[in-house]
Specification:
By secondary structure, the chain is an alpha/beta fold. It is built from 7 helices and 4 strands. About 35% of the residues are buried.
């Protein structure tokens, strides 16, 4: 799926819909994971990455479920069966373990009360990239995975706009 995102970015550039030199990939939850992995797999194609309540450690997420659970079946459908692979193979699909490979400007936003993707996942990645001038972490108090409160959604939009204006301005 990440390669599909990169291909879509290439298409948007070739059609003149996006500027060359790196598109910005944004997503929430699994889409946030995809945005981060797109920056890892396409460093020359991705100028910035925005992850909202994104998964930064899918292996950790999978360990929270029983091997026969519906949730585990969902994760394996999207991520593959990584239980029988080596630690280094697992690290290849984990933005947290590959933080050094994320060179694009990065915005992480996470709701503090998220019960689907624990806020600790974004906090941990934020600590790894905290020393970079092109990285920002925003934690939203009082909201969950859906960021359903109007104030939370306004905060996401304001933070995203400010980040894009600084790191990926329109032509």
């Amino acid at each position: 799926m990440v390669l599909d995102v990169l291909d879509a970015g290439n298409w948007a550039v070739s059609e003149g819909l996006a500027k060359s030199g790196g598109v910005c990939v944004m997503g929430a939850s699994y889409g946030g994971y995809s945005a981060l992995m797109s920056a890892i797999h396409g460093p020359e194609k991705v100028g910035c990455s925005i992850s909202i309540n994104g998964v930064t450690d899918p292996i950790e997420s999978m360990t929270e479920y029983g091997t026969e659970s519906t949730a585990m079946a969902y994760w394996e459908l999207y991520m593959g069966d990584y239980w029988s692979t080596s630690k280094s193979d697992k690290a290849q699909i984990t933005p947290f373990d590959r933080a050094r490979d994320i060179r694009a400007a990065t915005l992480l936003i996470h709701g503090r009360e998220d019960t689907v993707v624990p806020v600790g996942q974004s906090r941990a990645l934020a600590k790894k990239i905290d020393n970079r001038a092109n990285a920002r972490y925003v934690e939203i108090d009082g909201d969950d995975h859906q960021l359903a409160r109007t104030t939370s959604r306004v905060k996401v939009l304001e933070e995203t706009l400010a980040f894009l204006q600084e790191h990926h301005p329109a032509r």
